[in-house]
Queue: 4 jobs
Job 1
Amino acid sequence: MSDDFMLDTDDLERRMDGAMANLRTEFASLRTGRASASMLEPVMVDAYGSMTPVNQVGTVNVPEPRMVTINVWDKGLVNKVDKAIRESGLGINPQMNGTIIMLPIPELNEERRRELTKVAGSYAENARVSVRNVRRDGMDQIKKAKADGMSEDDQKLWEGEVQEMTDRFIKAVDDQLETKQGEIMQV
C-alpha cells in the first residue's frame, strides 16, 4: 500500500540549511572587537515611514580594523540613523561628521566578552531548536506513513536517515558556536 512512500529529505535538508543560514547571520552581527559591516545588519532605521536596514539608507564602509563609517545619503536621516545605532544595543557610540557617521569600535572587556559568548550560545540553541523542529516534522510524516501501511523496516530506515541528518546539522551548529566563542574571547 505505502511501498512508494518517499520522504522529501531535500526539503528537510533545505529547512535545516535555513536554520544554519539564520545562525550565520546572527553570529555575523555579534561584535568580536573587530569592525565589520555585517555587525550593522540588525539595525533598522525609521526612514520614509517604514523600518529600513542601515545599509539601505547609506554606504557602510570599514576604513580601518576598529572603525565603521556610514555615509548617509539623505541628510534628513542622519539623526535617525544615529538614534537607531544608539538604541540597537551594540554598545557603540556614533560620532557624526556631516552626513558621515563614524562608529569607533571599542576594545571588548572581559565581562562584555563573556556576555557575548552567552548571546552566541542562545543563538546556537535557537538554531538547534529549529533543526529539531524540522526533525519532528520529518518523523511525523514517517509515523503517518506507518499508519497508512508502511513496513516497520522502512520506518526504521527513514527514521535513521532523518536522525543522521539532524545529528549532522546539530554538530555543525556546535562547531560554529565553538568557533564564534573563540573569536569573541580572543584578545
Job 2
Amino acid sequence: MNRREFIKVGGAGLFTLFLSGCGLSMFSGENADNAKANAVSEGGNMKIVVITGSPHRNGTSALLADKFIEGAQSAGHEVYRFNSAFEETHPCLACGRCGRDGACIQNDAIEKNLMPQLLEADLIVLITPLYYYGMSTQIKTVVDRFYARMGKLRNKKSILMATAWNSADWTMTSLVDHYESLVQYLKWQDVGKVLAVGCGYRSAIERSEFPNQAYQMGASL
C-alpha cells in the first residue's frame, strides 16, 4: 500500500457511495447549500490558519489546500498558510519550560511565525497526506507544539482534510479518531472533513470531485 490515503467531506449528513476519478470512495457531509445555511462564520469574516503536512509542493493534499483557500478567500475570509514541510520546525521536548501557556524554548518558525497566527485564528485547518494511517510527521510536529499554548488554543473551529492511496472503508479511521480526540481535548468545534481515498497521485485527484468539495467548504464558511 502506498503511504498516502483518502479524503472525505465530513459532517452529520447522509452517507452515500459514488464512483469518482479516484475510485470507489465514501462521501459524508452536507451539500454546499446546507453548509451555507449553517455557516460557522455567523456573517462575519474569519481569520483562518491552514497548516499543511505534505513534503510535496504539488501533491494531492496541496491541491486541497489550494482549493480550500481559494474558496475561503472568495467568501472574504483572511487566510494564513503554513507549509510545515518547508519550514524550520523542531519537535516538542517535553521540557515544561513553556508552562503550557508561554513561549517555547524552540525559537523556530512555529514559535515565531505560526503561533501568533494560531492565537488569533477563528478556524484551524489541518491538511495532510495519510502516512501509515496517521498524519505526516511534519504536521504532527506542529500539533505537538500546541502544548505550549494549550489554554489559549481552546474553543476554536477546525477542519480536517487528508488524502490517501487506499480506498478501503477503514482507511481513514485512525486519522479521524486522532483528530476527533484532539477536537475534544481542545474543545474545538469540528466544522467538517474532506477525506479522499483512492487518490494516490495528482492526476487522480484532479479528476475527482474532492478539489471542488474543498473549494465549496471554504466558500460556504
Job 3
Amino acid sequence: MRYVAPALLAMLLATASQAATKVKHFAPEGVPASLTNAPPFSGAVLAGNTLYIAGTTDHDPATGKPGADATTGAKMVLDSIKKTVENAGLTMDDLVWVQIFASDIKDFAAFNAVYRTYFKGSMPARAFIGARSLLGGAHFEVMGIAVKSK
C-alpha cells in the first residue's frame, strides 16, 4: 500500500496538469471570401503557452487572389500570420519556429527583405522550402510555432 499512494498521487498530478492546459482554436485568417465552405482546420491552436499556426497563404481575403508579386505576397502572408499571433495574445517576437514554402525559390531574397521588418528581437528558427506549386497559385505558405513569453 505504501507504493500505491505515490503512484496514485503522480497520476493525479499528471491528470491535473493536463486539465490545466487550456486549448483554444482560432479560425483561419485571410481565407478568401470566394470559399463557400469553411476550411476543415483551425488557423491556429493555442495549447497552454504554445501557439501552433496552420499553413497560411498570401491570398487577399477580399479577392481570393494571391499577391501580384513576391514582395506583395510576402507582406500579405506575414500580415495574416501577425494578425493570428496577435489574436492569440502574442507577438511576432514570440515565434520560435517558422516554415516557409515558396512556389519559386528565386523569391528567397524578396521574402527575406519583407520578413526582417516583422521582428524586433532575435529571429525564430526557420526553413525556406521550394515547392513547385501552392494552393490557389500562392507565392508563399507559412506556418509556425510561437511560445508566449512570461
Job 4
Amino acid sequence: MIRKTLTAGLMGAALLLSGCISLLPENAPATVYRLSTPEPSGVVRVEAVIVGVQRPLTPRALSNNMIAMSQQRGQLVFIDGAEWITPVPRLVQDLIVESMDAFEPSLIAARPEDGVRSEFELATEIRSFEANYLAGPDSPPTVIVRLRARLIRSTDRRLVAVDAIGAQSLSSGNTIGEIVAAFDAASQEAMASVAQWTAEQVAEHHDPVHVH
C-alpha cells in the first residue's frame, strides 16, 4: 500500500505498485531498515585534516524516514509499512562520516554538533535517493543515489571544489528486502566516492602553514 503521494492522479501508480510489493495491514507497525556501515580502518590519524560534514540539503519529500520510489514522469510514492531507521538526511550524513573513517586515513570527519574546528566543510545536497521503476512496475527497480558535493575552506569561506557524485544499483527482485539491499549497495558506493573525492580535494587545497 502506498502511504502518501506527491502528485494528484497517482491512484493508478499505487495500484500498480501493490502488485509487486506485499501489502501490510493499515495498523501494522512499520518495519525499520538501516543501511550497513563500512568497518572503521583503525588507522591512527596523526596528521589528518578535519573535515566538517554538514547535514545534507534535501528536498522536502525526501527529508523524512520514508522509503521513496519513483514512477513515470518523476512521480514519487512511498512504501507503507517500511521506513528508514532515521530521516534520510541524517542517514546520508552518517554514512559519509563512516566512509571517511573507513577509507580515507588522511581525513577526520566531524559533525557540526561535535563542536570541533574544521579546516574544510563538506556541504552536500541530495538530488536522488529513490528506487526507480525505469523498466515498468513489474520489473525490479534501480536504486539511484545522487548528490551534489561542495567543499568549503573554513578560514576564508572559499568554495574550493564542487562536483556531482552518484551511484545506482539494480534490485535483484521486487520484495522490500531486495530493494533495501539495492539502496545499501548504491549508498555505499556513492558515499565512498564522496569520501574519496573529498580526500583528493583536501590534498590539493590543504595549506598546513596557514592552519590555525
